[in-house]
């Protein structure tokens, strides 16, 4: 948007949603980095599934959106990032991106039956609860998010942002 020449470097191949693998095995082979065997070590080992595809991990995540907690952003200052990522700036950018990502509370087919029952149970007990905010447009509830949404409903980076990026002259290197 500023008129600069920009290239996005992806660690995997470009795949259009209609060409995502149909099964988990194919997704692990073609879209997941290291077949999904990454993990973080600490007091325990925590699996971390990352993508190896243009669009990054948004291609295989569940499209869940949540603003980062203010205390986490503020903690970035201790890493020397406070000037580059001020709390208000990060939260403002997240809110500005929401419309481009079709961010909305899960409803209809996007609301899994067990999630709807859970919300109903919370409300019956007077406990606050709300549907998860997701980056999905016309979700059909196919439950294939981690394999890449073949329906193109999930507003992953390659679906929601890269077409406009390319229109502005951005280049993608994979």
How many beta-strand runs? 6
Could you tell me the radius of gyration in angstroms?
Answer: 18 Å
Mean pLDDT: 92
Q: Note poorly predicted spans.
A: none
Q: What proportion of the residues form beta strands (DSSP E)?
A: 5-15%
Taking the alpha carbons of the first and last residues, their distance comes to 22 Å
Strands across the major sheet, in which order? 1-6
Class by alpha and beta content: alpha+beta
Give the ordered list of helices and strands. Answer: EHEEHHEHEHE
Shape: globular
Tally of alpha and pi helices: 5
Give a quick account of the main beta sheet: strands, pairing sense, barrel closure.
2 strands, parallel
What share of the residues lie within helices? 25-40%
Could you explain how this protein is built, in words?
By secondary structure, the chain is an alpha+beta fold. 27% of the residues lie in helices and 10% in strands. It has five helices and six strands; from the N terminus they run βαββααβαβαβ. The strands form three sheets. The chain has a two-stranded parallel sheet. Strands 2-3 form a two-stranded antiparallel ribbon. It is globular.
